[in-house]
């Protein structure tokens, strides 16, 4: 049997390496034990067919620096794990107040470290042949306990604008307008705008347009209450499903085993 090497480029820059390294090896332990796969944490195997690059820097734009709202950034693509994007995945109850923002994965081994393990094993899975099948035809599954999990396939996943269960009340203050509130809760282009807030539905199933008594979005009154997203609850949901322990199924391991035996380089680009 030929032992293939997965070259881990720039792994030495990864935070919580002592946590991440052993868990990445555990993710592929069957293939490693069989001699089918070797992980090169030094990143020195430049002639390897299989390469995963860790990116720990980000070129911040003014918008990145000034605005803190959650954006559903993809933290990996096939062959690449972007640690800075993982750090950037946050939720803010008030976009204008950075103190109200908290990352999905905090700077802890069991959170950011675990998120790196998940993303790295996921992208390595793609590299090693998990590129078709699954729920979506790109090898992804909705089981949060699997490395090929993506949250949009989870049974409890609801897009933000439709997530009426994770909502809270906001009491309108003097000087508020729907566009000001929308801006502060992150309903901004390209995500949304004030009309999304006007039509937003809350836990009771009612939309803000039906709660506001004037019937005119430009005429709102202090102490009226509207529904806004409960970002604390939404963050807790993402944290729970994205950083729990994950594994590959025997079927996924078998696919990777076949792929390694053939020694094919990756050519598809599933994310
Ligand atoms: Zn993927």
Give a quick summary of the entry:
This protein has 271 residues and is an alpha/beta fold. It folds into two domains: 174 residues, Collagenase (Catalytic Domain); 63 residues, Membrane-bound Lytic Murein Transglycosylase D, Chain A.
Q: Indicate the CATH class of the largest domain.
A: Alpha Beta
Number of domains: 2
Molecules bound to protein? zinc ion
Backbone CA Rg: 22 Å
Number of strands: 9
- Any guess at the CATH architecture of the largest domain? 3-Layer(aba) Sandwich
What is the tally of helical segments? 10
* SS-derived structural category: alpha/beta
Break the fold down into its secondary structure elements and pairings.
Blueprint: E1 4-9, H1 17-27, H2 29-34, E2 37-40, E3 50-55, H3 62-66, E4 76-77, E5 80-82, H4 83-88, E6 90-92, E7 101-103, H5 109-127, E8 167-171, H6 178-184, H7 194-198, H8 208-211, E9 225-229, H9 231-242, H10 250-262
Parallel strand pairs: 1-2, 1-3, 3-5
Antiparallel strand pairs: 4-5, 6-7, 8-9
Helix pairs in contact: 1-5
The structure holds zinc ion.
């Amino acid at each position: 049997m030929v032992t293939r090497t997965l070259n881990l480029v720039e792994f030495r820059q990864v935070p919580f390496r002592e946590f991440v390294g052993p868990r990445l090896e555990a993710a592929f332990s069957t293939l490693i034990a069989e001699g089918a796969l070797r992980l090169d944490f030094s990143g020195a195997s430049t002639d390897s067919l299989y390469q995963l690059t860790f990116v720990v820097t980000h070129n911040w734009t003014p918008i990145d620096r000034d605005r803190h709202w959650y954006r559903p950034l993809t933290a990996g693509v096939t062959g690449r794990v972007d640690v800075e994007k993982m750090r950037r995945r946050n939720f803010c109850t008030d976009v204008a107040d950075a103190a109200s923002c908290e990352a999905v994965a905090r700077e802890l081994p069991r959170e950011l470290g675990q998120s790196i393990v998940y993303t790295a094993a996921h992208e390595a899975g793609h590299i090693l042949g998990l590129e078709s099948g699954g729920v979506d035809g790109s090898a992804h599954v909705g089981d949060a306990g699997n490395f090929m999990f993506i949250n949009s396939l989870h049974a409890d996943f609801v897009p933000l604008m439709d997530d009426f269960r994770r909502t809270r009340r906001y009491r309108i203050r003097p000087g508020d307008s729907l566009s000001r509130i929308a801006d502060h809760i992150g309903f901004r282009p390209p995500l949304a705008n004030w009309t999304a807030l006007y039509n937003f539905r809350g836990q009771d199933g009612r939309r803000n347009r039906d709660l506001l008594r004037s019937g005119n979005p430009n005429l709102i009154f202090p102490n009226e209450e509207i529904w806004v997203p409960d970002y604390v609850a939404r963050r807790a949901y993402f944290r729970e499903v994205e950083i729990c322990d994950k594994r590959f199924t025997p079927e996924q391991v078998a696919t990777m085993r076949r792929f390694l035996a053939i020694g094919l380089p990756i050519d598809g680009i599933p994310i």
